[in-house]
């Protein structure tokens, strides 16, 4: 998935002061994805006051809606893309030669490293599509390393009375995903049954957040519906979740990320120069040297927008009140 904003704002995801256990709601920003007609996403990461949750630095949710999704080849650097469909099927092709279809309950994980490019198309004519697209910031070493792709079709589950979780990244109470990541992380889809109540175990060393994908739930004493992200802070050994009518939630967690990050368009770097170099490489006639070529598109791809006429500067998290 790509950020198709015509004038993407520079972002810096900076380490932030310890918050402890909190329950803060962050409203999404509605973002129209230019080339995808009638398609909008709800973006809850990054935000000025909450740039990251662990190494999770970008979170878009789109759908459920009937839409013909056509995301042409585009580049990435310094991150991993995590594609998690809730409804519908998405065809992924990349410059590594991958050509796969990802379905609900399956994970696509692409590591950009120094550079990769890919495309994503929905299957069928205007199918019902509902998915989340996340980015994971890569630490030093991996951020400048080789690109990679893996699809995981069989994922572990965690169960408790009234709830079941599919763990697609990291580990939840012994249920560990085989997906390869470079920092301590958690990503899980939690399904709570109608009138279900559950205490979900958490890693106290992580900060966590919850996004409701369907239904409504009460999480850590806060009523949550689809749309906003509930930030839970860190230091929690567990979180209580209940739902009267049933709900599906996305649970994210991770150890606080140690590096400052500049984010612009589809690139994650450490400095303005990192971003400018990546953009220039994608715009050049020799872009395939760094980003490769995605087969099946006859050379058609998404061009990079112009850099802003200022040096990309940090956007830091607002201090705690």
UniProtKB/TrEMBL annotation:
GO terms for molecular function: metal ion binding. Fe cation binds at residues 74, 76, 118, 120. Its cofactor is Fe cation. SUPFAM superfamilies: RmlC-like cupins. Keywords: Iron, Metal-binding. Residues 40-136 form the Pirin N-terminal domain. Gene3D superfamilies: Jelly Rolls. The keyword Hydrolase does not apply. Binds 1 Fe cation per subunit. Residues 189-284 form the Pirin C-terminal domain. Belongs to the pirin family. This is Pirin family protein.
